[in-house]
């Protein structure tokens, strides 16, 4: 079991939830008002947290890929590399690098309100050099690292399945393979969802005067919302591909439905008791009549 590796999955879930807690409600508010009327501070905080979510997601996905690579391809060293203490340190390092990667936005002035997407977000044309650095270090380089890790894992899995050099290969359980496939799908969806927006940003950064007028507004809007929709997909992937998540999802749904039925039954029983209970006025009147007799 990847007990130590689960902390990276939890960390990735936190990165996905960051945008739902603060930025998304503000985006809905700006959509309803057709403008941003929440002030400069909220705009900067919203854009900063969106960046934290994005960079935190890709860094956590990279950390998960390295963790899976070490677990499968270097199993003899895994327990030493990923002890409980080391795993916590790795997660802290991921979030520290995430914050360090986002802070320059505050000095470059690249967090601005974009009326096309009703969001305070990263302005690709604010600084060409910074945009190129963001695309390379926050997308292309992590994608290359993750691709290498998963490619090596796929090769090893195929070799184990075909029994190539079985004495030198670790034994992979079906659960190991399922967990690996789940995180591989998470990585593929992230790359597919975020690639269009990053490539647009790279093109804008290289030749802003030429490229910006050529990009249709609908294309930018579609790529933007497709990128941030990725945060909603991970929970679906876990539910579809992971039996433990499916079981917990069912338990939560059953618990919610049971609680709703319980409250409805309780309210109905209370209503029936109120209907069946004689009113104090009638009881007092009957008592008066009995006394008078």
UniProtKB/TrEMBL annotation:
GO molecular function terms attached to this record: melatonin receptor activity
Family: Belongs to the G-protein coupled receptor 1 family.
Superkingdom of this protein's organism: Eukaryota
Main location as per UniProt: membrane
Recorded GO CC terms: plasma membrane
Matches recorded under Pfam families: 7tm_1 (PF00001)
Positions of the UniProt region annotated as Disordered: 270-293
Domain G-protein coupled receptors family 1 profile: 1-238
Keywords on record: Biological rhythms, Cell membrane, Disulfide bond, G-protein coupled receptor, Membrane, Receptor, Transducer, Transmembrane, Transmembrane helix
Coiled coil (residue ranges): none
UniProt subcellular location: Cell membrane
Protein species of origin: Crenichthys baileyi (White River springfish)
Descriptive protein name: Melatonin receptor type 1A-A
Ranges annotated as biased composition (Polar residues): 281-293
Function: High affinity receptor for melatonin. The activity of this receptor is mediated by pertussis toxin sensitive G proteins that inhibits adenylate cyclase activity.
InterPro entries referenced in this protein's UniProt entry, alphabetically: GPCR_Rhodpsn (IPR000276), GPCR_Rhodpsn_7TM (IPR017452), Mel_1A/1B_rcpt (IPR002278), Melatonin_rcpt (IPR000025)
Membrane-topology annotation of the record: Multi-pass membrane protein
Protein's gene: MTNR1AA
Transmembrane segments: 7-25, 45-66, 87-108, 128-158, 179-206, 218-241
Gene Ontology terms: biological process: rhythmic process
């Amino acid at each position: 079991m990847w007990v130590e590796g689960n902390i990276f999955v939890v960390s990735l879930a936190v990165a996905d939830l960051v945008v739902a807690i603060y930025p998304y409600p503000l985006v809905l508010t700006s959509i309803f008002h057709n403008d941003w009327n929440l002030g400069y501070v909220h705009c900067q905080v919203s854009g900063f947290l969106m960046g934290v979510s994005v960079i935190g997601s890709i860094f956590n996905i990279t950390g998960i890929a390295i963790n899976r690579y070490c677990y499968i391809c270097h199993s003899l060293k895994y327990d030493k590399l990923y002890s409980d203490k080391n795993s916590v340190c790795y997660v802290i390092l991921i979030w520290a690098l995430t914050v360090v990667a986002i802070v320059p936005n505050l000095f470059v002035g690249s967090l601005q309100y974009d009326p096309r997407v009703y969001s305070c977000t990263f302005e690709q044309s604010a600084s060409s050099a910074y945009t190129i650095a963001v695309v390379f270090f926050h997308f292309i380089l992590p994608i290359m690292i993750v691709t290498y890790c998963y490619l090596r894992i796929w090769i090893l899995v195929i070799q184990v399945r075909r029994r190539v050099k079985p004495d030198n290969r670790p034994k992979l359980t079906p659960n190991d393979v399922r967990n690996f496939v789940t995180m591989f799908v998470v990585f593929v969806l992230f790359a597919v969802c975020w690639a269009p927006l990053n490539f647009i940003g790279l093109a804008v950064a290289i030749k802003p005067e030429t490229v910006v007028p050529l990009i249709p507004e609908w294309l930018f809007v579609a790529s933007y919302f497709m990128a941030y929709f990725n945060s909603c997909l991970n929970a679906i992937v876990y539910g579809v591909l992971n039996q433990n998540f499916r079981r917990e999802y069912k338990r939560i749904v059953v618990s919610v439905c049971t609680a709703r039925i319980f409250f409805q039954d309780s309210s109905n029983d209370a209503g029936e008791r109120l209907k069946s209970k004689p009113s104090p006025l009638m009881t007092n009147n009957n008592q008066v009549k009995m006394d008078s007799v």
